[in-house]
Amino acid sequence: MDRRFSVVIVEDDFLIMEYLRELSEEIGLNVLGTADVADQAVTTILQNRPDFVFMDLRLAGDRDGVDVAQAIQPELPDLKVIYITGSNEPNSLARISLDHPYEVLIKPVVERDLRRAIGLSVN
Amino acid sequence: MRHRLRSAETFTMCCGVLVASFGAIDWLDWSIGTGLLVAGSRYTATAPLAALGFLVTGIALVAAVRRHYRTANLLAAALAVLVVLNVCLFAFGAAEWPAQALSFHAGGPEHAVMSWATSLCFSLAALSIRLFHARARRSVAVAAISASIGLIVVVISLLSILFDVGAIYSVPFFVGHALSSALAFLVSFAGLLMLRPARSWTAILLGRGAGSMMARWLFPFTILIPVVLCYAGYRAMAGDVLPDSVVVSIIAALSSFLLGASVLWSGHLVNEREARLAEMMRKMELYARDRDLLLREVNHRVKNNLAQVHAMLGLQARRVADPVARQGLIDMKGRIEALSTLHRILLAKDNPSTLCAQEYFTALCERIEEGLGARQRGIRIAVHSDRVQLQPDFAISTGMLLNELAGNAIKHAFAASGGGTVDVSFRVVEGDRCELSVEDDGSGLQPSAPRCPEDGLGTKIIQAIVAQLRGSMEVSHESGSRFSIRMPVGR
């Protein structure tokens, strides 16, 4: 790997956020920031301009992860948004598919899932 | 409805007893010859054969209600014989013979002779009694129709007697059809129509539906309106109050108006009820949507909590230095992952109440393979499952069982260098029992000897779930290890 990939984690559950942060760091990602509500997430992502965003669908507040992704789309059209969601119900998956996600992971995620999602070798 | 059906039976029973009593009393009256009923008036008297006929009809009705069908059939046949006998008497000009033979003071011919109308009514009654308990729906329909025709004939004669008692006897068909006979027939046919209300048009009057309620309301009015109007009109015509054509016009106009009003009223009632139903439907939909939302929320909570526990175990595992303790936490994390996977597969469908065994086990095994990195070690899980529907509870338990068994096989059955196959099979045997088996072709380490405390826990979990599923487990170690669990299938 020439340089470390960078990531912003958007997750409204702080336990899971911490776990994702440690997991990301362990596989060599540079965690630039975290956010748990939509507005904060937009600001953090636009400020840090990461390679990836780990995006939860449900966030604290009215707006969800898809709203965040759509808000930053004009600024950062090449941003790779990886959804990490707790619900795989048809409704939620339909909502996510509105945003043409780079990858969708269902919680709980393990190291292997993250590695595969960002295109690192699984072994 | 059931309550009303029972009341209908009681009603028919009463009708039968009433008609039979009337026939018996009248027959006695003829035999003893006191002439109490006979002498009353020529319009009210019943002929002796007719009296016998009523006795038979009444008993037949009671027999039919009590479900003595053979007796009812015999009595219906006797009634038919009676009618034929009467017709023969007419043919030989001996119509008055029964009255003369029985009574000392035979009156005028009109009331001593059983009329054509009476004969027709008895034939209809006999047919109706015979067919009402037939199995074929068409026969029952014929029975209901003949009872209804009888009712119409009787009502015509009763109304004619009410309007102008002299006029009816100028019609040959009705000559000798006395008021008492007509009343007895009215009771008989009413009783007959209530004999099998569930299979005749009377069901509409007795039902619980909105239409039946409306019918009960409107039925008396629609029956009485024409009768009252025509009676008043007839009186007006007889008294020369108004020209006939005007009276008939008034009858036509008023009956049109009143019947039209009753139709409108019924329409109004239906509209009201429909509006109430629509409101109820709307509330139910709202309620269902709320429940749906709540269910989704609860499901989400469950999965989120599992994800939280998983995250905490992951965080903790990183902070434990002791490798055995660390492995314990990682194994536990794996079990929570498996549980989450089960929920995920269950909730991926819109209708999670049942799920297909084959799809479920295949998805679960893929996840187990991935979770333990089996592919990288050249290990493959092959799933063979019957396509049966499983209950969620059963699915969760068997899923946990499979997770332990297949996980164990991947972790321990194969030598570090070589790959292999884990065969998972789920079959329904003997109808309501099934067999879940997990078999590996690995060289196998000593499976009975626990390698660390964690293996002890795996075994304990397996035993607990097998016991919970009321199953029994067989283990064999030949070329590889084979675990097979037989248990009642939860479908």
List the SSEs and their pairings.
The complex is a heterodimer of chains A (123) and B (491).
Chain A: E1 6-10, H1 14-26, E2 30-35, H2 38-48, E3 52-55, H3 65-72, E4 80-85, H4 90-97, E5 103-106, H5 111-117
Parallel strand pairs in A: 1-2, 1-3, 3-4, 4-5
Helix pairs in contact in A: 2-3
Chain B: H1 2-32, H2 48-65, H3 69-91, H4 97-102, H5 109-112, H6 116-132, H7 137-163, H8 165-168, H9 179-193, H10 202-206, H11 210-238, H12 244-318, H13 323-347, E1 355-356, H14 357-371, E2 379-385, E3 389-390, H15 392-412, E4 420-429, E5 433-440, H16 453-468, E6 472-477, E7 481-488
Parallel strand pairs in B: 2-4
Antiparallel strand pairs in B: 1-3, 4-5, 5-7, 6-7
Helix pairs in contact in B: 1-2, 1-9, 2-3, 2-6, 2-9, 3-6, 6-7, 6-9, 7-9, 11-12, 12-13, 13-14, 13-15, 14-15, 15-16
Provide a short characterization of the protein structure:
Chain A is of the alpha/beta class. Chain A has helices spanning 14-26, 38-48, 65-72, 90-97, 111-117; strands at 6-10, 30-35, 52-55, 80-85, 103-106.
